[in-house]
């Protein structure tokens, strides 16, 4: 017997037929003797609709009332799934965030989970009861419902798994695992059997949209073994209930991955823009003068490249921001022109950041050089490069995104089985 958290996203609970199908997945694990907590999202499209209603009601909406409205989508699915489970003979009960409680901070609309008291859920497991928990929501210190930011029910699931010390957290979604790259761009992309927490964190942060980034951070900190798998597979197909090797991708500690490849995956993020400040004074405090005001304006700066000055007095600084923030960034920078002291600003939108990710890079030389050579052979110009121990990110023109992803995917042999 084990303790399992099963999370189902919006497309998996999109209508009553799919909710009944989810109930069969849950029944399979209950029949195998496991203790089960289920976490559900709102039906697909529901949260968008609720968000639009709050905007319609008041464009400058009060975040507490926004949360009261948008959290309702998950309340509906948790009750419906509990009913569907009861209907097939399973003792199930729904739980809203405040009933457990899942305590969060006060950042309504983008709250962080602070603490979860799992004792009542665990006591009820002892009575043979399945918990169906509304994802995406908790209770703020002001005693009001707080939501966790879009995609937050992944984070609810991992946090609950950590709180009740679950053996596994299964994230059921509309894809059957994590792939070496986006299969819509490269049909030869392969499903990964396993991926390390750190790699998944990079993949999620750098553009892969399978999981909310925060959920991967939590899984890494609390070492929650997390499976990404499909809810559209037949719940009773052979192997579906295999405890050690269910179909899907396991996100786990790197120690669990014996045959580590040098490169695990290629991610990409569209709609990046580059801003360059030319002939800045090369003195202490320029970076602070540039990035301080951008941070205050909530502009998310990503890659930053500064050249070493040739003459000890002037230098250039280039960085990237999301395309949607360019105008705001230019306004902020021009507003601080006297403090920063630059000659001209240049900018370019429609760029793409392609990233090569793999823990194996730590101990292998030449990984970056192969990427640069391969892109050069295809005539793709590199605009900026940043690296960490386990990733290389390359900024290129948007028109070459797909070619670059496919080229890098094949250079590291990811399309071979
Ligand atoms: N329903 C919420 C959203 O659409 C939370 C989630 O699905 O994870 O963002
Ligand atoms: Mg989601």
Automatic annotation (TrEMBL):
<dbReference type="GO" id="GO:0009088">
    <property type="term" value="P:threonine biosynthetic process"/>
</dbReference>
<dbReference type="InterPro" id="IPR041740">
    <property type="entry name" value="AKii-LysC-BS"/>
</dbReference>
<protein>
    <recommendedName>
        <fullName>Aspartokinase</fullName>
        <ecNumber>2.7.2.4</ecNumber>
    </recommendedName>
</protein>
<keyword id="KW-0028">Amino-acid biosynthesis</keyword>
<keyword id="KW-0808">Transferase</keyword>
<keyword id="KW-0547">Nucleotide-binding</keyword>
<dbReference type="InterPro" id="IPR018042">
    <property type="entry name" value="Aspartate_kinase_CS"/>
</dbReference>
<comment type="pathway">
    <text>Amino-acid biosynthesis; L-threonine biosynthesis; L-threonine from L-aspartate: step 1/5.</text>
</comment>
<feature type="domain" description="ACT">
    <location>
        <begin position="275"/>
        <end position="359"/>
    </location>
</feature>
<dbReference type="GO" id="GO:0004072">
    <property type="term" value="F:aspartate kinase activity"/>
</dbReference>
<dbReference type="GO" id="GO:0009090">
    <property type="term" value="P:homoserine biosynthetic process"/>
</dbReference>
<dbReference type="GO" id="GO:0005829">
    <property type="term" value="C:cytosol"/>
</dbReference>
<dbReference type="GO" id="GO:0005524">
    <property type="term" value="F:ATP binding"/>
</dbReference>
<feature type="binding site">
    <location>
        <position position="47"/>
    </location>
    <ligand>
        <name>substrate</name>
    </ligand>
</feature>
<feature type="binding site">
    <location>
        <begin position="7"/>
        <end position="10"/>
    </location>
    <ligand>
        <name>ATP</name>
    </ligand>
</feature>
<comment type="pathway">
    <text>Amino-acid biosynthesis; L-lysine biosynthesis via DAP pathway; (S)-tetrahydrodipicolinate from L-aspartate: step 1/4.</text>
</comment>
<dbReference type="InterPro" id="IPR054352">
    <property type="entry name" value="ACT_Aspartokinase"/>
</dbReference>
<dbReference type="InterPro" id="IPR001048">
    <property type="entry name" value="Asp/Glu/Uridylate_kinase"/>
</dbReference>
<dbReference type="Pfam" id="PF22468">
    <property type="entry name" value="ACT_9"/>
</dbReference>
<dbReference type="InterPro" id="IPR002912">
    <property type="entry name" value="ACT_dom"/>
</dbReference>
<dbReference type="InterPro" id="IPR005260">
    <property type="entry name" value="Asp_kin_monofn"/>
</dbReference>
<feature type="binding site">
    <location>
        <position position="184"/>
    </location>
    <ligand>
        <name>ATP</name>
    </ligand>
</feature>
<feature type="binding site">
    <location>
        <begin position="173"/>
        <end position="174"/>
    </location>
    <ligand>
        <name>ATP</name>
    </ligand>
</feature>
<dbReference type="InterPro" id="IPR036393">
    <property type="entry name" value="AceGlu_kinase-like_sf"/>
</dbReference>
<dbReference type="InterPro" id="IPR045865">
    <property type="entry name" value="ACT-like_dom_sf"/>
</dbReference>
<dbReference type="GO" id="GO:0009089">
    <property type="term" value="P:lysine biosynthetic process via diaminopimelate"/>
</dbReference>
<comment type="similarity">
    <text>Belongs to the aspartokinase family.</text>
</comment>
<feature type="binding site">
    <location>
        <position position="74"/>
    </location>
    <ligand>
        <name>substrate</name>
    </ligand>
</feature>
<keyword id="KW-0457">Lysine biosynthesis</keyword>
<keyword id="KW-0418">Kinase</keyword>
<keyword id="KW-0067">ATP-binding</keyword>
<dbReference type="InterPro" id="IPR001341">
    <property type="entry name" value="Asp_kinase"/>
</dbReference>
<feature type="binding site">
    <location>
        <position position="179"/>
    </location>
    <ligand>
        <name>ATP</name>
    </ligand>
</feature>
<dbReference type="Pfam" id="PF00696">
    <property type="entry name" value="AA_kinase"/>
</dbReference>
<feature type="binding site">
    <location>
        <begin position="209"/>
        <end position="210"/>
    </location>
    <ligand>
        <name>ATP</name>
    </ligand>
</feature>
């Amino acid at each position: 017997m084990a303790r399992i958290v099963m999370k189902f996203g919006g497309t998996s609970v999109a209508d009553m037929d799919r909710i009944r199908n989810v109930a069969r997945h849950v029944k399979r694990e209950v029949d195998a003797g496991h203790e089960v907590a289920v976490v559900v999202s709102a039906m697909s499209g529901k949260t968008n609709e609720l968000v639009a209603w709050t905007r319609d009601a008041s464009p400058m909406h009060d975040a507490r009332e926004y949360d009261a409205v948008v959290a309702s989508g998950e309340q509906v699915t948790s009750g419906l799934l509990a009913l569907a489970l009861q209907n097939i003979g399973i003792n199930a009960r729904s739980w809203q965030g405040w009933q457990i409680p899942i305590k969060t901070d006060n950042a309504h609309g983008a709250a962080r989970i602070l603490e979860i008291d799992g004792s009542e859920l665990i006591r009820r497991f002892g009575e043979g009861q399945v918990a169906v928990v509304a994802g995406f929501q908790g209770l703020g210190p002001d005693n009001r419902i707080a939501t966790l930011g879009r995609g937050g029910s992944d984070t609810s699931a991992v946090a609950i798994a950590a709180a009740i010390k679950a053996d596994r957290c299964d994230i059921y979604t509309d894809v059957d695992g994590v792939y070496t790259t986006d299969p819509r761009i490269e049909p030869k992309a392969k499903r990964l059997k396993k991926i390390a927490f750190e790699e998944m964190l990079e993949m999620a942060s750098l553009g892969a949209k399978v999981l909310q980034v925060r959920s991967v951070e939590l899984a890494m900190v609390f070492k929650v073994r997390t499976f990404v798998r499909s809810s559209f597979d037949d719940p009773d197909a052979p192997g579906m209930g295999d405890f050690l090797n269910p179909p899907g991708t396991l996100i786990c500690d790197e120690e669990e991955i014996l045959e580590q490849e040098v490169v695990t995956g290629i991610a990409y993020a569209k709609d990046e823009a580059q801003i360059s400040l030319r002939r800045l004074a090369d003195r202490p405090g320029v970076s602070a003068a540039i990035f301080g005001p951008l941070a205050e304006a909530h502009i998310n700066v990503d890659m930053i490249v500064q050249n070493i000055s040739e003459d000890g007095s002037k230098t250039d600084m280039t960085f990237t921001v999301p395309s949607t923030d360019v105008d705001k960034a230019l306004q902020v920078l021009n507003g601080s022109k006297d403090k920063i002291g630059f000659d001209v600003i240049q900018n370019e939108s429609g760029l793409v950041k392609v990233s090569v990710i793999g823990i194996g890079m730590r101990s292998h030389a030449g990984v970056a050089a192969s990427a640069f050579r391969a892109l050069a052979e295809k005539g793709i110009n590199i605009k900026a490069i940043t690296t960490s121990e386990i990733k290389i990110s390359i900024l290129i023109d948007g028109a070459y995104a797909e070619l670059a992803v496919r080229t890098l995917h094949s250079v590291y042999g990811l399309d071979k089985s």
